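Sequence in, structure out. Go.
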Amino acid sequence: MPARLRLPTQPLTAGLVTAVVGFSSSFALVLTGLRAVGADRSEAISGLLLLCLSMGVLAIVLGLHFRQPLSFAWSTPGAALLVSAGRQPGGYRYAVGAFALCGLLLAATGLWSRLSRLVEAIPGNLATGLLAGVLLSLCLAPVQAAFQLPALTLPVIGIWAVLTRLARRWATPGALLTTLVVILVHTHGRLGAAHDLLPRLTVTAPALNWQSVIGIALPLYIITMASQNIPGLALLRHFGYRPPVRSVLTTTGLTTAVTAAGGGYAVNLVAITAALVAGPDAGPERERRWIASVTAGACYIVLGLTAGASAVLLTAAPPLLVEAVAGLALLPTLGSSLSTALAQEKGREAAVVTFVVAASGVSAFGIGAPVWALVAGAVMRFLV
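Output:
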């Protein structure tokens, strides 16, 4: 077969793996986060559907246009932030308004370089300390579930531990598959009507109040930029690409703003699995690795159509079991965040203060722990 007709097997495989791992490792967290801020089941399913479609379309359109491995994802740390934020005064529509505002801020960052520099000026150890604090409560869920629901949770943890040793990339998907089997056995296969398996778009009119701006919009913007977009851009540069920063930020921001009413809380450049589509795993020819990100985008669109079935399976499970699966998926991120936050002796106390306040879950004057954590960390950094 002539060389020009050969299928690019390695990039296609890398794209498929990226989508499957990215979706399976955190879609439970996305549903949990949306439900935490007040979405009902249909609204959470709508959010998962729109996020998958947005990620897929962006990856395909921008990948084909720029011929670079530009892969997109929902903000996994952002979903964890939603869990810690909880229900907003006034209901879910105020969370939706905060999603839209976050999207507009992301777009503004692409159009106004000074705003981007302000985000980059946030000390790295404070940003990672904040992320670690937000993740901690979820990462404790596997321990709590192991004691409260041992028959359901221990098989999941066991498979996750074995695969972490033998095939780390597939540890979380393996744990999720085990969870689905456990749920089917636990419910004896009775999961609900067939029409519940089809995802449907549900629109909520957005609203804003100062609590949702400070409690969700600003922390969601900061944590998405600091832990997703900035590392994702840095990783692309590491592999020799010149990512179109303005196009990436404006398109992801505007997409978030447009889809917010349907539950699309934040779309961003991939950071956690970016190496799968931008690195050697996607093939030796760097100029053809865009095929991997485009493939991942197409797979995300297909996976989005399973949002209803995914939600039906997970809502049939005890909530603590779902949180346990999300916690297992986030353990590596927690570890890397803590390592980065505490790596430098200078500013370590400020990072620890940020982490502790964020992990506390405190709320005062309608302002949640993530904001207080940044304030406390900044004060500590100034004093020490």
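Check: The longest strand covers residues 72-74. Strands lie at 72-74, 267-269.
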